Amino acid sequence: MAFELPSNLHPDMGPVAWMLGTWRGNGHGDYPTIDGFEYREEILFQQDGRPFFHYMARAEIINAETGEKVRDAHQETGFLRCKQTGMGVGSVEFVLAHNFGIVEVYVGNASGGKLEIVTDAIGVTATAKAVQGGKRLYGNVEGDLLYAYDMAAMGQELQPHLWARLQRA
Length: 169
Prior knowledge:
By secondary structure, the protein is mostly beta strands. Helices cover 0% and strands 68% of the residues. It has one domain (11-168): Calycin beta-barrel core domain (Lipocalin, Beta Barrel). The protein contains no helices and ten strands. The model has no long low-confidence stretch (mean pLDDT 96). One of its GO terms (molecular function) is heme binding. Belongs to the nitrobindin family. Keywords: Heme, Iron, Isomerase, Metal-binding.
C-alpha cells in the first residue's frame, strides 16, 4: 500500500512521518512476573499539521492457537513530538498515559525509519504496578511497523517485555 505524506505535515515531524496511520498486527509478551502471552494490537498515529502526532494503542490477549480474543489488554494514549536536528534526524519526546495508572515521558532520537526512546520520567498512581523504567524501539521494516518494549518493573531489571509486527491498515 502506497503511503503519501500529508500536505500539512509539520517539517519537524519528517523523521517520524513514516509512522503516520493505523497499524494492526500481532505480538508476544513475556516477563518474569507474568506468563507469556500472545496479543493483537491496533496503533494509530495521527496529525493535524502541528509539531506532534497524537498516538493511541489498544491490545487484546488472544489464544495462541486459534487467534480468538481472550480478553482486553493494555490501552495507551499520548503525544509524540519531534524536533529536527539535522537532515532526517530528530530529537524525540513521547508522553504516554496508560490505563493501568502510569504516565511516562520518553526521550530519544529518530532517523532512517527508526525511533529509539528511553524513559526520562515516570509517574504512577497509588494502585499502579511499580514500573521503574522502559525502552522502546520502533522500526520501519519492509513497510511494516516493528517494535520492542523493554521494561524494568516489579523489582526486575530492564529486559524484554513486548514485541510485535504490525501492518499499515
